[in-house]
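Tutorial handout. Part one gives the primary structure; part two gives the three-dimensional structure as tokens.
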Amino acid sequence: MGVTGTPELRNFRPVAKKVLDALKGQDFVLESRVAKALGKKGVELPNMKADVIITIGGDGTILRTLQGTDTPILGVNAGVLGFLTEVQADEIGPAVRKIISGRFRIEERLKLRTVMDGKRLEDATNEAVIHTAHIAKMRHFSISVDGTPATEMRADGLIVATPTGSTCYAMSVGSSIIDPRVEALVIAPIAPFRLSARPFVVPARSKISITVEEPRECIMVIDGQCEYDIKGDEKMVFTASDKKARFVSFKNDFYRNLEEKLMAVSPYAVQRH
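Part two.
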């Protein structure tokens, strides 16, 4: 097994200790940044040879890890929400024992392929966001699906999301929540000028093309991790990736997870009491 994480998080060290205690007697390797924080030796993520990678952190940690590996991820929550994480810190011992005994399954989720002017960028597990580079300056977007013009709209930006990403930024702008088993993509406007501008849900096999009319500077952000400046005259194409995001899963509880983590009281509010 491999271990990576975000050492800057407040809860990182106590959670990391529980992870390392659970891995005693097992063959494991630390990612270099985590190893440095713990005063140990490690390797870079792309060079990590492991059957499962344990991430210590929140959703951002998982998304960053999935940029660098196709290895199945077991997320251990050391953040605030951790919607994509599978276990809490006090559950890591039983989780490791289940992995060792093979009592788990690999859940594969759709990733988004992004191509800008013919150059393939990083795949997204959650979403690709195109946003105006200037505050309070809308952009005029043209969207086509499979070569057919779908709509034009003025908005602060657009989100192209996977089902996994439908519970993230896309949800906050009014998009539907999509079960991760559904093969679909979401196109959601950010602060559109017209009230009639609504999110689209299209088949995952679709080819989504987006251009900026009257070219103006924008920014593209992939999974909140990778950022690109856009002059405005580029053609951006989005399709389902040939790669998958792979997660270690012990139970099929998407809807319970949704209820407990996204529909309940904010964890920030809970922490104040």
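Part three, for discussion. The first strand starts at residue 2 and ends at 5. The chain has a mean pLDDT of 93.
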